[in-house]
Every structure is written in structure tokens, then in C-alpha cells.
Write a sequence for this structure.
């Protein structure tokens, strides 16, 4: 049975574009030619599943995110699965865009879980924001901050106290992200088989690789394919296997005299 998974939770904070414009207001168009300085990654906070320590990398004294990216992508590449809220649409694409700018290599695809996608597809929350979901589930809330003024102090004034406050804000996001994920994961289908990654049988639990599982339901698809819904007796994960994998499960139980 697996007790340690390489599942990485992370969040990023980014700077705004700096540019010039003549007028502010609704439906105003600012051309890319008006950008003086491109947006960057200010900091990235991350933690491994079930570890207490939250790690943070920040841009350097010159507000360059190159070293930050180089270090974090190495961490990200070592993960079996990455989790972020709106990660597929925002965080991962943001990181990749900045890596492209610096000429840093990055995988084209990651085994990712986007808790925003999970929230939208599986539930009907009044809001899909991480802060609301965390409060709804009773697992905490986002750290309060000064809003845009915090970003101004970090970016324009290079205020070390403001950067510290931003890091604390980002780190707390990672903590509540993991708590939200742990609450909703039993309602979602597994997206990675940690057992198979370690050469366990296909019928084992994809989360903990336990062979102590049971048949929950059998159904047949429109194409006539038999599928078996399984439930893990150890970690309560619910998942689906092919009929062939289920037959292997029955043979395994007979060989090992398991009833």
C-alpha cells in the first residue's frame, strides 16, 4: 500500500504589465505596443501532499523571475501530479509563457488536477472561487490583504515587507488548496494511477495501491463493454476498471485465499 504520493500543490502570484495610456474607463483598448514592461511571476508557493512545510520562491532583487522559474520547474517536473486552482488555464500557461521568454525547458504536458474545473463540472457552488469554496467546506479562507496597493508596493516600491505579506498570502492559498482538494476528491474520478506507476496490478486502488478493494457496481456501455465500479476498503477511493482487470482481481483473491 502506498503511503507517499508525489502530488504537488502550488500557487503563483504575478505582476501587472507596466505601460502608458491616455484615458481610463469602460471598454478602453490598450495596444500591446503600449506595454513598457511585461508581467512576470513574483512568487510561487508549493507543498508536497501531507507535508507540513510550504516552500516559496520569489523573483530576485532585479525583479527577474528566471531563477525562480528554473528552480520551480525542476520541482514541478519531479511531481507525479500537480494541483492548482485554475491551474490548467492560468498558472501552468503563465509559467510556460515565462519559461519560453527565458528559453527554459518545460514539459508540454503535466498530470494536473484543476480544482476550478472540478468545482465547475461536479458541483453547483454559488461561487467557484477558492476562498468561497474553502469557507463553504469549513477548511479556512484566503489571507486578507491590501488589494492592488499590495502589488504596487511590491512592484513599484520594491517594499520587502509587502513582498513578505504577498508570500504569506500565496502560502496560505496552497494550504487551503490542499484542504479543498482533500474534501472534493472522493467525488471525482482518479486522474492518475499511483499503483500502476509502481507496477501494482490494474485492479488495485489508484490512490493507495491497496488490493483490499471490493466491487461496487457493474454496468455495460452502449458498445457492450462491461465496466466495474470498485471501492477501496482502505482509503475509500471509488474508481472504474475493465472487466479483464476485475477478472484478474478475482484470480488474485483465489490464489491468496482472500474472501
Amino acid at each position: 500500500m502506498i503511503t507517499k504520493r508525489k502530488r504537488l500543490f502550488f500557487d503563483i502570484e504575478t505582476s501587472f504589465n507596466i505601460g502608458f495610456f491616455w484615458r481610463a474607463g469602460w471598454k478602453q483598448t490598450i495596444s500591446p505596443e503600449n506595454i513598457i514592461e511585461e508581467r512576470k511571476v513574483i512568487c510561487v508557493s508549493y507543498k508536497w501532499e501531507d507535508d507540513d512545510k510550504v516552500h516559496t520562491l520569489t523573483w530576485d532583487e532585479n525583479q527577474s523571475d528566471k531563477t525562480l522559474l528554473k528552480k520551480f520547474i525542476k520541482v514541478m517536473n519531479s511531481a507525479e501530479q500537480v494541483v492548482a486552482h485554475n491551474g490548467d488555464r492560468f498558472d501552468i500557461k503563465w509559467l510556460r509563457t515565462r519559461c519560453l521568454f527565458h528559453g527554459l525547458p518545460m514539459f508540454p504536458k503535466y498530470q494536473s488536477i484543476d480544482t476550478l474545473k472540478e468545482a465547475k463540472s461536479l458541483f453547483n457552488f454559488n461561487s467557484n472561487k477558492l476562498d468561497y469554496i474553502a469557507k463553504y467546506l469549513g477548511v479556512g479562507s484566503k489571507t486578507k490583504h491590501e488589494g492592488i496597493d499590495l502589488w504596487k508596493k511590491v512592484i513599484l516600491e520594491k517594499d520587502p515587507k509587502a513582498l513578505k505579506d504577498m508570500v504569506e498570502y500565496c502560502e496560505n492559498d496552497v494550504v487551503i488548496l490542499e484542504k479543498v482538494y482533500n474534501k472534493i476528491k472522493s467525488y471525482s474520478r482518479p486522474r492518475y494511477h499511483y499503483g500502476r506507476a509502481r507496477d501494482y496490478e490494474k485492479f488495485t486502488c489508484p490512490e493507495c495501491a491497496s488490493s483490499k478493494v471490493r466491487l461496487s457496481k457493474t454496468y455495460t456501455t452502449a458498445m457492450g463493454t462491461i465496466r466495474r465500479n470498485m471501492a477501496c476498503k482502505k482509503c475509500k477511493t471509488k474508481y472504474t476498471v475493465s472487466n479483464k482487470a476485475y477478472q484478474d482481481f478475482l484470480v488474485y483473491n483465489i490464489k491468496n485465499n482472500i474472501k
About this structure: DSSP finds seven helices and ten strands in the chain. The first strand starts at residue 7 and ends at 14.
